[in-house]
Amino acid sequence: MVSVSIYRQSLQQLKTGMLVVPVLEDELKIPRPVTDWLQAHNIFLSELLRTTHFSGKLESHRLIPTGLADIPILICLGMGKLNDWDMEAARRYFGKVVHLAKELRVDTPSIYWDDQLPRSKEDSIFFPEVMAALGMATFRVTEFQTEKAEADDFDLASVQLVYPDGAAELEGYVEEGIRMAAAVNLARRLGEMPGNVLTPKRFVEEVRRLAQNYPDWKVRILDRGQLEAEGMHALLAVAAGSAHPPYLAVIQYRHPKAEETIALVGKGVTFDSGGISIKPSKSMDEMKYDMSGAGAVLATLKLVTETKLPVNLVAAMPLVENLPSGKATRPGDIVKSYSGITIEVLNTDAEGRMILADALAYVNRNYQPDILVDLATLTGAIIVALGHLAAGLFTNRNDLAEEFEEAGRISGEWVWRLPVWKDYGELMKSRIADLRNISSKPGAGSITAAKFLEKFVHQKPWVHLDIAGTAWEMPERSYRGKGATGFGVRLLYHWLKLFHGKEKEP
Ligand code: BES
Ligand code: MN
Ligand code: ZN
Predict the structure, then answer these.
(1) ∠245-249-255 over CA atoms, to 5°?
(2) Which long-range contacts (CB under 8 A, 24 or more apart) does 40-48 make?
(3) Rounded to whole angstroms, what are the CA distances from 241 to 323, 342, 346, 417?
(4) Nearest CA to ligand 1 atom 16
(5) 3-state SS string over 107-132?
(6) Which of 125, 160, 185, 429 has the fewest CB atoms in 10 Å of its CB?
(7) 346 lines ligand 1 (CB under 6 A)
(8) Alpha-carbon gap, residue 393 to 415, rounded angstroms
(9) Is the pLDDT of residue 448 over 60?
(10) Smallest CA separation from ligand 1 atom 5, residue
């Protein structure tokens, strides 16, 4: 991960491969210390910007060679209009710096900032978020390429945030942002790993490898034998067709001053073929992302541990592969879940809710969480409803919906609430068992899936996020390329930090 340092002295002493200077579209004004420094070297920047018709539009830029050894390149980078300068614009601005540096092959760029420049949120949110965007923009997966494209063969070494008289808190904010980026990038890397590499067993190995860095994690891995002994037959039914054995990974993180315990449960289907109810082959390859909920949960736990948020977390990741075979679960099969509720499997492709049912019931019974949150690439129907811009949010508590909506606005990881009215639950009643795993009528597929999950949380405060549309294929931005997005990590982090990271009274 790129390292970022703060530079607080005057520009006269600065040495850097390139200096990026922010310019608002409204006034095309260059920060005073920068113009002063340039004038001392007989460079009149506003003239240059005018003659080259620089607009100041967000992410547009002008490159000015200075002929000076200490700062050979100056980049004026557009911030757009002041009125549009929100967190998303700021993330795009800082992400763009990485692409410019890459293009120019400058591995030690600097970004100018000062107290006069606008921020769209308080510093404790603004700086971590923009630094996260910067770190996210450096993400790429190279481990499956033997012939690297030359243009790709470049990594940023270090970035300086040039901030004359910057506040003492900046280092902390920068560190937090870079940790956020590292966590998001971990979730993205897991999402990009194909089904033959990231098997349930390999996911467990990744958990164990991470756990070596965090001695206070209490890791519990349940293997097939233990899952059978515990009676997790909903989870086991999904794994039945695959040669790769299933696991339930549970990690506990405890903070001595924490008031609340929160369970994070992530769907971890390392590949979803649909099973006997097999999917069409078109785009089936995308089902390698079906473990993105588990990836986001693991990455969030890592981030919360590193930033020492005062909250107790239990992360549960049911890990399975959904394949057809002679041992696979059949449509019509009835299984008894961990909670005792029986399920008629009418479609083996509705597997996410099966493994979440057991994982939710298991953490609820064994870890007594105050709140349960699950993340899952659960339904194609949520893409029909919300596309790739927002996750579906389902909850049995209004205050939790509002908290997540606020965390979504901050992170740009938007959530949109859908109802969980009682009557939708009628559609999930089986004629012969307690529940059926698909609705008895077409329509409202994301809601009926949520109603299924709700049966396993026993009225506890609960939030279900359907991230099928947002875990990949979100619109490309400077800080987010094609493929896996790591959606949920920054959303959960801001939610925990803002609303559940309060230290208890001594
Ligand atoms: N993993 C899929 C959901 C999905 C679909 C994610 C498309 C991303 C893109 C899930 O396991 C699934 O197959 N859901 C079914 C449910 C149906 C059988 C009730 C679906 O959405 O079609
Ligand atoms: Mn499926
Ligand atoms: Zn699935």
Answers:
(1) 175
(2) 40/12, 41/66, 41/68, 43/74, 45/74, 45/76
(3) 5, 20, 16, 35
(4) 350
(5) CCEEEECCCCCCCCCCHHHHHHHHHH
(6) 429
(7) no
(8) 6
(9) yes
(10) 380
Q: How far is the CA of 303 from the centre of ligand 3 (A)?
A: 26
Give the domain 180-500 fold: Aminopeptidase (3.40.630)
For residue 296, the surrounding DSSP H or E stretch is helix 292-307
Report how far apart, in Å, the C-alpha atoms of 382 and of each of 125, 379, 470, 495 are: 29, 6, 10, 22
Contact 45, 62 (CB under 8 A): no
DSSP SS3 for 373 = strand
- CB of 352 within 6 A of ligand 1: the answer is yes
Instruction: Answer whether 377 contacts ligand 1 (Cβ < 6 A).
Output: yes
Cα(301) to centroid(ligand 3), Å: 23
* Per CATH, domain 3-164 is 3.40.220.10: yes
Ligand 1: residue of 273, 286, 329, 349 to mutate (most ligand atoms within 8 A of CB) is 349
**pLDDT tens sequence across 262-312:** 999 999 999 999 999 999 999 999 999 999 999 999 999 999 999 999 999
Q: How many CB atoms lie within 10 A of CB 219?
A: 15
**Model pLDDT, residue 151:** 57
CA–CA separation, 198 and 26 (whole Å)? 49
Which residues are tagged catalytic? 279, 353
Cβ neighbors of 497 (< 8 A, separation 6 or more) are 307, 309
- Distance between CA atoms of 317 and 297, rounded to whole angstroms? 8
Mutate to test the pocket of ligand 1, among 238, 285, 379 (most ligand atoms within 8 A of CB): 379
pLDDT tier for residue 57 given thresholds of 50, 70 and 90: very high
Residue ranges of the domains in the chain?
3-164, 180-500
Predicted confidence (pLDDT) per residue in 240-257, tens digit: 999 999 999 999 999 999
Rounded to whole angstroms, how far apart are CA atoms 291 and 314? 18
Please report, as a single letter, which amino acid is at residue 303.
Answer: L
Type of residue found at 72: P
Largest CA distance in the chain: 85
CA dihedral of residues 353, 270, 367, 260 (deg, nearest 10): -90
